Amino acid sequence: MVGSAADERVFCPDCHRATEVVLDHATGDTICTECALVLDAHFIDEGSEWRTFSADSAGGDDRDPSRVGSTGDPFLDAKLSTAIAYSKKPNAKSSATGDNALPRMSVPFDAASASDRALADAFRGIADMADRLGLVATVRDHAKDTYKKLDDAKGCPRGRGSRDAVYAACLYIACRNLGMPRTYKELASVTADGAESRKAIGKMTTHIKRVLGEEGGGQVLDIGVVRSADYLRRFCSRLGLGNQEVRDAGEAVRRLEQGLDVRRNPESIAAAVIYMVVQRTGAGRSVKDVAAATGVAEGTIKEAQKDLTPHAQMLFA
Questions:
Q1: CB 29 within 8 A of CB 40
Q2: Do strands 103-106 and 83-86 pair parallel, antiparallel, or not at all (unpaired)?
Q3: 160: phi > 0 → left, psi -120 to 50 → alpha, else beta; which?
Q4: In DSSP terms, which residues pair with 11 in a beta bridge?
């Protein structure tokens, strides 16, 4: 494999001037592009020996700038190290010769404590859930930070069964903090227990707010207020509605929030408004389609629609 180094110029004794060169990665040779003279042999690449594939490498350079050192996750404090261990029992060769036992070099994968390894496992679980939900890296990192604060406050419940609920609750809080809320049903869909874990996620969210509200200065409590408009565009996208339908639904929700006081969940209101829009525009979507896209039960959508129907003229004027 030959890599171009067009931006580099090296003096070529054969051409008697500085010329552009290429690097042959297979042989480590630096070759003049003008006369093909090998200017340097067995070149040693000082770059990283691995690739990171991290989100920060989107700029084109996917190499880690460090050859050795700590792990790439900024939320982990674990360090890599090399330890020299001495065997107390001589091996067969040393016993025969009477020599002292030679030291054995031990290179552990990670010299962090058990708590650091547990933290790394939790971060992997949060990242996996975030990927399956299609959440951006900002939300994922915010959820990691929330989990780390909870762990530092000794508020993480123990037990394999509660892990998914903790991870999902951290993602729920992160989404609320950053103005990109997700419903409990959406978060439950990426847990091992599925929809049955919705109550557990809700309880864990309350637990996190209580622990960090007392231990962390109340920073995590600023999760804002969820509005129907926060869910609307994502739900419309799942249904494949056009721009006009999305605008009509958005305008109806805006008028509803300004002029009416409907005591229903924001996701139920969003689903009902979308169902009313597809009925008015003939978009060819049934209440079953709307329920599948929004995660709201068909009966709940119809009940919310009944509450909004008397105000349809105001909503869709």
A1: yes
A2: antiparallel
A3: alpha
A4: 18
The pair of three-digit structure tokens given for residue 225, joined into one six-digit string = 């207020």
pLDDT tens, position by position, 130-173: 999 988 889 999 999 999 988 888 888 876 668 899 999 999 99
Residue 233, CB half-sphere, CA atoms under 13 Å: how many? 7
Nearest-angstrom CA–CA distance, 302 and 198: 23
Is this prediction's pTM over 0.70? Answer: no
pLDDT at 47 over 60: no
Residues facing 40 on adjacent strands: 30
Which position has the token pair 């729920």?
172
User: Do 114-221 and 228-315 show the same overall fold?
Assistant: yes
Other C-beta atoms lying within 10 Å of the C-beta of residue 6? 9
Q: Which CATH superfamily groups domain 114-221?
A: Cyclin-like (1.10.472.10)
Band the pLDDT of 288: cuts 50, 70, 90. very high
* DSSP letter string, 284-307: ---HHHHHHHH---HHHHHHHHHH
- Between the alpha carbon of residue 237 and those of residues 242, 269, 294, the distances in Å are 8, 17, 10
Instruction: State the Cα–Cα distance between residues 92 and 108, nearest whole angstrom.
Output: 25
Q: What is the spatial distance between Cα 22 and Cα 12, in angstroms, rounded to a whole number?
A: 13
Rounded CA separation 275/262 (Å): 17
SS3 47: coil
> CA angle 133-136-140, nearest 5°?
80
Any idea where the domains of the chain sit in the sequence?
A: 2-40, 78-106, 114-221, 228-315
Top-level class of domain 228-315:
mainly alpha
Widest CA span in the chain: 100
pLDDT in tens, 277-287: 999 888 788 99
CB distance 73 to 120 below 8 Å: yes
Residue 282: left (phi > 0), alpha (psi -120 to 50), or beta?
Answer: left
Question: d(Cα 287, Cα 298) in Å, to the nearest integer?
Answer: 6
